C-alpha cells in the first residue's frame, strides 16, 4: 500500500480516480465540451472517411477570445504532409471574417499519450468523458504549452482558454483533405453542396456533432438541437464543432488516495479525502467519480466548508477478477 498525494484542478468540480490511463496527472481545466453523432452510410473510394481518421485543432485564446498563438493540429494518425487543407485557422478567425485558402502543405503533431477517439464511427464511438479527461489533464496542458510556446504556468493562470475543434481526414473526389467542421461547412457552401451530396454523415453529422458547447462561451451558444442526424451549414458555422477548456476560477483541490489490489471476491470500501480551498456548498456541490475496471461509481452532493476536509467512499466487490483501484500520478 502506498499513499500518493497530488495537487490538481478539478473538471467541473468532479474528482476522479481512474484505471489504465496513459495520462499521469488528471485535471487542470474545466471542459465545456459535449458531443453526439450517428451511424454512417456507405461511400466509395473516391469519397470516403475511414473510421479512425480524426484529430483536433487546438487554439489558445484569451478569456476575451483573442487568438494568442498559431493553432496546432493533433492526431494519432499518420497523415501525409501533402494532404489538402486550409491552413491553421480557428473557428474564431473564420467567425471574424477569415476566408478559406487552400494549402497543399500540412503539419501536425502526434502526442506521446494518444488522443481519445474524437469522431464517432459506425462501430467505435467517441466518449465525451474521455475527451474531457484528456484535454483537461496536466499532460495535455503541458503538451499544448510546449507546442505553442506559451509557458505552462502562464497557460493555466486563468488568462487563457483552449478552443478544441474536431478534424476529419477524408477523401473527396479522389483527393485527400483535412478539415475542421467549420471548414467543411464553409467549403460545402462555396462548392454548392458538394460535400453534403457525397459525405453527409461525416461532414454534416458526426464531424460537427463530435464537439459542441454545454454552455455559451466566447460568443458561441450552447447547442440545444438534436445530437444526431444531419445539420445545416449555418448551424455548424454558428454553433457546432467546438469545445472549450477554461482555467479561470477553477479552485485547487487536494486528493490523497492509496493504491490497492484486491483478491477475487473481496468486499471493498475505498475512500479518498477531499480538501477544498473554497467553500463547496449545496447550491454547487462537488462529486467524486471512481473509475474501476470499466465501471463508473459516483458519489454526489459533496459539500464542505473552505479549508475543511471531507471523506468520500464507495463499497464494491471484486467478484471474479482481481480488482485494482489506483490513482496514477
Description:
The chain is of the alpha+beta class and 329 residues long. The chain has 2 domains: 2-12 and 252-325, no CATH class; 30-246, no CATH class. The chain is 17% helix and 29% strand. It contains 8 helices and 14 strands. It has helices spanning 91-95, 128-135, 138-148, 152-155, 181-190, 194-198, 200-206, 233-239, and strands at 2-8, 14-17, 30-32, 54-62, 72-75, 160-172, 175-180, 243-246, 253-262, 267-276, 286-292, 295-302, 309-317, 323-325. Strands 3, 4, 5, 6, 7 and 8 form a 6-stranded antiparallel sheet that branches. Strands 1, 9, 10, 13 and 14 form a 5-stranded antiparallel sheet that branches. A 3-stranded mixed sheet has the order 2-11-12, with no helix packed on it. Helix 5 (181-190) runs antiparallel to helix 8 (233-239). The chain is globular. It starts with a strand and ends with a strand. The model is unreliable at 1-27, 38-42, 252-259 and 320-329 (pLDDT under 50).
Q: For the terminal residues, how far apart are their CA atoms? A: 15 Å
Q: How many DSSP-defined strands? A: 14
Average residue-wise pLDDT: 79
Rg over C-alpha atoms, rounded to the nearest angstrom:
21 Å
Compute the number of structural domains.
2
**Large-scale geometry:** globular
Broad structural category: alpha+beta
Amino acid at each position: 500500500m502506498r499513499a500518493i498525494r497530488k495537487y490538481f484542478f478539478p473538471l467541473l468540480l468532479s474528482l476522479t480516480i481512474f484505471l489504465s490511463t496513459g495520462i499521469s496527472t488528471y485535471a487542470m481545466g474545466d471542459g465545456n465540451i459535449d458531443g453526439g453523432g450517428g451511424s454512417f452510410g456507405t461511400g466509395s473510394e473516391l469519397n470516403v472517411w475511414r473510421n479512425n481518421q480524426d484529430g483536433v485543432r487546438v487554439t489558445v485564446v484569451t478569456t476575451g477570445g483573442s487568438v494568442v498563438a498559431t493553432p496546432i493540429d493533433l492526431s494519432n494518425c499518420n497523415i501525409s504532409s501533402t494532404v489538402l487543407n486550409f491552413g491553421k485557422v480557428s473557428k474564431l478567425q473564420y467567425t471574424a471574417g477569415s476566408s478559406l485558402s487552400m494549402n497543399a502543405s500540412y503539419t501536425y503533431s502526434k502526442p506521446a499519450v494518444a488522443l481519445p477517439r474524437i469522431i464517432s464511427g459506425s462501430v467505435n464511438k467517441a466518449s465525451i468523458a474521455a475527451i474531457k479527461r484528456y484535454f483537461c489533464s496536466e499532460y495535455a496542458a503541458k503538451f499544448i504549452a510546449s507546442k505553442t510556446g506559451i509557458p505552462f504556468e502562464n497557460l493555466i493562470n486563468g488568462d487563457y482558454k483552449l478552443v478544441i475543434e474536431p478534424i476529419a481526414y477524408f477523401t473527396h473526389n479522389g483527393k485527400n483533405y483535412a478539415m475542421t467542421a467549420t471548414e467543411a461547412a464553409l467549403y460545402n457552401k462555396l462548392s454548392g453542396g458538394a460535400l453534403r451530396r457525397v459525405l453527409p454523415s461525416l461532414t454534416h453529422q458526426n464531424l460537427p456533432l463530435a464537439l459542441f458547447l454545454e454552455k455559451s462561451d466566447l460568443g458561441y451558444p450552447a447547442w440545444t438541437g438534436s445530437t444526431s442526424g444531419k445539420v445545416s451549414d449555418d448551424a455548424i458555422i454558428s454553433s457546432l464543432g467546438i469545445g472549450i477548456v477554461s482555467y479561470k476560477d477553477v479552485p485547487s483541490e487536494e486528493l490523497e488516495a492509496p493504491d490497492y489490489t484486491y483478491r477475487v471476491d473481496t468486499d471493498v470500501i475505498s475512500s479518498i479525502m477531499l480538501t477544498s480551498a473554497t467553500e463547496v456548498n449545496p447550491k454547487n456541490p462537488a462529486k467524486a467519480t471512481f473509475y474501476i475496471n470499466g465501471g463508473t461509481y459516483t458519489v454526489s452532493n459533496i459539500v464542505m466548508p473552505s479549508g475543511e476536509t471531507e471523506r468520500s467512499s464507495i463499497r464494491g466487490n471484486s467478484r471474479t477478477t482481481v480488482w485494482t483501484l489506483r490513482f496514477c500520478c
